Structures are given as structure tokens and as C-alpha cells.
Amino acid sequence: MDRVRWTPAVVRLMAALMLSMFVAAMDSTVVGTALPTIARELGQFSLYPWVFSAYLITATTSVPLWGRLADLKGRKPVLLVGLAIFVIASVLCAASPGMGWLIAFRTLQGIGAGCVQPLVFTILSDVFPLAQRARLTGFFSAMWAIAAIVGPALGALFVATAGWRWIFLINLPVGVVATALIAGYREQRPATATGGLDARSALLLTAGIALLLWGLGAGSSDATPNWVLVALAVAVIAAFGLVEARSPRPILPLDLLRHPVIGPAVLLAILGGTIMFGVTAYLPLHVQRVYGGSVYAAGVAVGAMSIGWPLASSSAGWVMVRVGYQRLVLGGSALLLLGTAMLVLGPLGPGTAWDGAASLVVGAGMGLFSAPLLIVVQNLVPWERRGAVTAMNQFARTIGGAVGVSLLGVLVQLYVRKAADPLAAGAALAAGLHAVFVVLLLLAVISFGTGLAILLQGYASRRHVVVLPTQDRDADSRAGAAGP
């Protein structure tokens, strides 16, 4: 079976997955523009960073757990549970009487959101053979970037009209429609993972990542690190690694990191996530404080990344089935190298337009290799490990970005704290931001080296080259995967 026919059942499933992906992606950005209004209305302004940070922590730490559960219990029931948690938490966020309640409900909402993206891409890999999936995965990845543009604008619209609570209430009808459409999906399970969920591993992973993000300044208004918490987090994560290595039912498939394709793919996800989130976090500050640009100019500059990503991602699937994934990985990492080099050379360029062009190039680089690498790692494992490896890919990019941005913030603060007066503070900030861009360039160099190694390894061993359609493990089992 080389292709899955677009029956009404398949169309309904794709509509449900697109709605689920879009609403979860948008919710990670829609809150930003509403936060000042929320803090002013609910009070306790000092707590407002936690509205975003609590969501980030649980949306990150829960991803591997959802991936493992999807392999154990099946994709459909796990995705329905995740959507239910997300929608219920959204309604509770809208009804929050105070800042503390909102933070608690955002924490719950992040748990549900952590389920959506890995499960969407896992279901795509279950239903479609590689040739079709290459195109669809690029399209779904592009939706995530589009949501990054739509989210802030929609948040501002709701704040100015119906009120900030509607940024959460809008998830209710969308979630109900998505749930109804997914309920009709008839999932087939060609295999079942053995064992259960290791409670020790789950607890250690969640505690370790939460302590690490907290210790690096997540939720702190001045991003001040707490090195005692960081040291404790490292110890807990090390304990998690020891437990996982001996566990018969690991949450993260760490053994797959030894694979000659999967290991480099995860490394690229970590590096790419750090570069992407680093540009998103510090480019607006560079435009406003170094070039003296407006808030609008800063938004346009960083928003260019969300234009480059979907354009490259939507075309990557079509190109991949013709030239293979290795060239796309090398091309994408080369664009990361070019984009970060442009940021380092920013003072030589035409101000904000130069920053926007660099952001566009970085986004195109991420879009060019993210979807192909995900497709390849999915194609290299059986059904009963696909949920876990998909979740590991997303987890690597997210945790790389979250930890990387926090460490880059520490670097900026090292420069700023040396300034003795306001004039010197401006120069120190500019120097700190330039140092951030230099670090991102060094990470891009490592990314390019990794991409080059993947290309050379592909030439050396044709076992890992994607050849359509013979390497698609489950092509014969997909004919009825989406129902009649």
C-alpha cells in the first residue's frame, strides 16, 4: 500500500489533528500580549511571569510521559485525555478569580498541551506512508510557526474587545470539535509495548527539569539564577539517567541515542531549539535597545522567523521524497549558520531590516530540517516505540530552547551588572546581546558539523538513506488505519 486514500474518515481525522495542533501552538503565544492586562486585573503583579513559566515547565516535562503512554495505551485514547485536560484547564483559566489560581490552572493546561504535538505527529506516522507523511508533516510543522504569528495578534484583539478571559474560552469550542472528530478514528495497533510507566523515572524527570528551569530563572522577573537549585537539578537528572538505564520500561528511549541517525537528530533538535528560542527571546531586545526601533519593528523582525519556517517546512516534504533527508539537513544547518552570522555582523548591516532578514533565514533553516529529521527517526523504529521517539524529538528541542535561553540570560546579566551608570548600561547591554549572538553562531557551527556528518554517514552506509517506499516499516498495515 503506497498511498492512503483521502476518504471522509481520513479528512475528518486530519481536520481534528490540525485543530488540536493549532490551538495548542497558539496558546503558547496568545497569553504574552494579555499578561499586563491580566496582572493589572488580578493583582499580584510580581507573580505574572509564572503565568507563562508554569505552562512552559509542565508542557516540557510532560512530553516524554505522553509519548510513553501513547505506546502503551494507543494514540487515540491518550490524545483524547490530553485534549480533555487542556480544554478543562482552559475553562478554569478563564474563570480564575486570582493570580494564584490562574498559575495553578496554567500548570494543568501545560500538562494537556504537552500531549498534543507529539501525539499529532505520531498519528500521522501511523496513518500515512512515508511519501505522503513527508508532505503532511512539513505542513503541520508550518502551522506551529503560523500560530506564533496569529497568537499575539489574537490575544491583543481579545484584550481590546471581549476581554482577556476569551483567550482561554476560545479553546472550548475548538477542543470539543476536535474531540468529536477524533472519536470517530478507528485506530489499529500492529504491536503493543510491554511493561508500564516507570513511576520513579517519571518523578525524577519531572522534578529534575522543573528544578533546572526554576533554578535558571524561569518565573523570576529579573531571570536571576539560583545555582543551588541548578546543582540539585543536575543531581536529580543524573539520578534519572541511572534509573532509566536500568529500567525495563524507560520513559525516554535513551538507548536510541546510540543510533547513527537518531542520536545526531536529537543533538540537532537541541541545538536548533536553543538557536530558535534564543533569537526569539533576544532579537526584539536588540532591535529596541540597540537600534532604537519601535515595539512594532521588533515584532516584525522576530516574526520574520515565523514566515521563513512555514515556507521552508511546507516545501521540505516535497523535496525530501526526491533528494533524501541528508541534503535538507545540511542545507537547513547551513541556513542556521548564515542567519546567526548575520546577527553577529548586525552592526555592519542596515539596522532592523538586517535583523529581520537574519530571523527569516534562521526560520527557514529550522523549517528545512526539523520535519525531515522527525520523519526519519519515526521511520527507523517500530510502532511500539514511535510515540516515545517522537516525544523525545520534541522534548529535545523544547528543553534545549528553555535551558539555552535561561543560560543566555545569565550571560547578558554578566555584562549589564558591570555598568556603573545608565549610559554605560546601554553599551553593556549591546555588548551582552552581541555575546549572545556569538554563542548562537558557535552552536550553529556545531549544527552544521552535525549536518555534514549526517550527510557523509548517509553516503557511507546506505542502510540509513530514506528510499521510497521500501523502507516504510508499516506501509502494508496502514490501508485501514483510519477506518472506512
Task: Give structural notes.
- This protein is mostly helical and 484 residues long.
- It has 3 domains: 1-183, Growth Hormone, Chain: A, CATH 1.20.1250.20; 198-248; 255-484, MFS general substrate transporter like domains (Growth Hormone, Chain: A), CATH 1.20.1250.20.
- It has helices at residues 8-30, 35-42, 49-61, 63-73, 75-94, 99-127, 130-160, 166-169, 171-183, 199-215, 227-246, 262-289, 295-303, 305-323, 325-344, 352-379, 383-416, 422-460.
- It starts with 7 loop residues before the first helix and ends in a 24-residue tail after the last helix.
- What name does the CATH topology of the largest domain carry? Growth Hormone, Chain: A
Low-confidence stretches: 463-473, 475-484
| SSE-based structural type | mainly alpha
Specify the helix fraction band: over 70%
Distance between the termini: 15 Å
Supply the CATH class of the largest domain.
Answer: Mainly Alpha
Q: How many domains? A: 3
Strand content: under 5%
- How many beta-strand segments? 0
Count of individual helical segments = 18
Helix and strand string, N-terminal first? Answer: HHHHHHHHHHHHHHHHHH
Name the CATH homologous superfamily of the largest domain: MFS general substrate transporter like domains
Largest sheet: none
